[in-house]
Amino acid sequence: MPVEPPPSAWSFGEAAAFDADDDLVAIGADLEPGTLLAAYRRGLFPMPSGTPGDPMYWFSPVRRGVLPLDRLVVSRSLRRSCRDHEIRVDTAFEEVVDACADPSRDSGWIDADIRAAYLRLHELGWAHSVEAWRDGRLVGGLYGVAVGGLFAGESMFHRERDASKVALVGLVEGLRDDRAADRIVDVQWSTPHLASLGVVELSRAAYLRRLPVTLAVKTAALFDASTDA
């Protein structure tokens, strides 16, 4: 069971006060575990500004990218790739985060503070990695935060073709149970690539209406312990 940290000293305010046209809804606070969990439970997530010394930025997208579990698109070639990989959960969390934070990647945003914060969330049982392994090597994966029925995806990477998508298939298949309709895989913002995999957009209001039901769902057995899926 994840360990509930001390509550945050910060408040993110009411969603009704968020700017209806701006994804950025708060600036400041900290990255303590209690603050991060409070943010996810309110529909927010953090991202650095990119300028050293700036306060943390907190986003609640006007158009939220989510992946309904019954809409994942798995092509024939991707299904073949899935057969060539082994899915593991939480066996290489730190390595997954570091691969996602590789400074050579375009639009890298995972800095030392973010890295440390999510490693701490992992230690407490809230942050998880889903990993694609091939021939004993980690070749792709993703990480995010599981709170109730919410899986808030943070980043993914691949070292071989399709490996990050294989991890995504492993995640979705691991979340499919009798409460699958109430679960959310949150990808923050949709992109053409993610849309091709089945990601859709919800309005901020629709996402926030759905969130309490999702949070009330028991966390999937996929994350009960470090496992091979």
UniProtKB/TrEMBL annotation:
Gene Ontology BP terms: protein catabolic process
Keyword Transferase: yes
Keywords: Acyltransferase, Cytoplasm, Transferase
Top EC category: transferase
Cell location: Cytoplasm
Listed Gene3D superfamilies: Leucyl/phenylalanyl-tRNA-protein transferase, C-terminal domain, Leucyl/phenylalanyl-tRNA-protein transferase, N-terminal domain
A Pfam family that the UniProt record links to this protein: Leu_Phe_trans
Reactions catalysed, as given in the entry: N-terminal L-arginyl-[protein] + L-leucyl-tRNA(Leu) = N-terminal L-leucyl-L-arginyl-[protein] + tRNA(Leu) + H(+); L-phenylalanyl-tRNA(Phe) + an N-terminal L-alpha-aminoacyl-[protein] = an N-terminal L-phenylalanyl-L-alpha-aminoacyl-[protein] + tRNA(Phe); N-terminal L-lysyl-[protein] + L-leucyl-tRNA(Leu) = N-terminal L-leucyl-L-lysyl-[protein] + tRNA(Leu) + H(+)
Cross-referenced InterPro entries: Acyl_CoA_acyltransferase (IPR016181), Leu/Phe-tRNA_Trfase (IPR004616), Leu/Phe-tRNA_Trfase_C (IPR042203), Leu/Phe-tRNA_Trfase_N (IPR042221)
Entry superkingdom: Bacteria
One MF term in the entry's GO annotations: leucyl-tRNA--protein transferase activity
EC number: 2.3.2.6
Annotated Gene Ontology cellular component terms: cytoplasm
The family this protein is said to belong to: Belongs to the L/F-transferase family.
Function: Functions in the N-end rule pathway of protein degradation where it conjugates Leu, Phe and, less efficiently, Met from aminoacyl-tRNAs to the N-termini of proteins containing an N-terminal arginine or lysine.
Name recorded for this polypeptide: Leucyl/phenylalanyl-tRNA--protein transferase
Organism: Nocardioides luti
Lineage: Bacteria, Bacillati, Actinomycetota, Actinomycetes, Propionibacteriales
